[in-house]
Amino acid sequence: MLKYFRLGCGLLFLSGLTACSSFSQLSQTHPVQPEPQILNIANPIVDTVQHQVAIRRISDILTQEQLNDEQQAELYFRRGLLLDELGLMHLAYFDMMQALEHKPDLSEAYNMLGIYYVRQEEFGRAYESFDSVLELTPDHEYAYFNRAIALYYGERAQLSYKDFESFYNINPTDPYRVIWWYFAEYQESPEMALSRLKQRAGKLDKNAWGYKIIQLFTGEIQALELQQLAAKLSHDEQGLNEKLCEAYFYIAKNYQMSNFNEAAEYYFKAALSTHIYQFVEFRYAQTELKRMAAWQQPAS
What we know:
Elements: H1 23-29, H2 49-62, H3 69-85, H4 89-102, H5 107-119, H6 123-136, H7 141-153, H8 157-170, H9 175-186, H10 190-201, H11 209-217, H12 223-233, H13 237-257, H14 261-272, H15 280-296
Subcellular location: Cell membrane
Protein name: Lipoprotein NlpI
Signal peptide: 1-24
């Protein structure tokens, strides 16, 4: 998916589960909680050696006093990205703050800070960070996307439309731009959102993996089919884990939007089991689970 940042795979409780019905069937004829089915086809082992070595080398270089501010900013930023890709988002946050101390106009660091604040549900600070990115780099397309996501999760979905539209218009052939805009519009009107989803999908490559995800939301394929396609279209374990991270997240969103919350929770957790930390789907699977847990808390 979208890797800006877009984000190996352990699987949950696998054997003996029955296949899910399609979204359209579930919502129209079987309003019961579907039983998830997850394929046991991924590798839970994540190789982090290269990242760890790179982090150590950057840390060693940062101890050299002859570095100027711009060099230090670049190194803190690069180490922060590596830490983020290992799932160490709080350590990554500190490095991004250090990078900005040395280079206050480093727009990419503001972008990463904004993503961090969204995940912490500090939406005001997230908006400020993405605004800073766009002030410094007006053509930074992913700042529009990330600000739109912040507005979406900040319960301001209608305000996100303009940013989603700006992001979409830069590349209308990217199916993920269509999917996330659909999520925002769904908050206003599911019928309108579905109609626009189908309209925008008509411009896409129908053989692309992202288009298959869209077919999940239009009811043209089932959850199990999407997982099988992930396996079929992947050429190595890393690619498989990445596609499964996406598949699980969007399957979860599909169930959530049909109020099948137990199934949605199951698949959000499956997305986290992939450890593809830098993918949007991994990042916001965590957010979705936190929000679902909050909804389930009894009123005090």
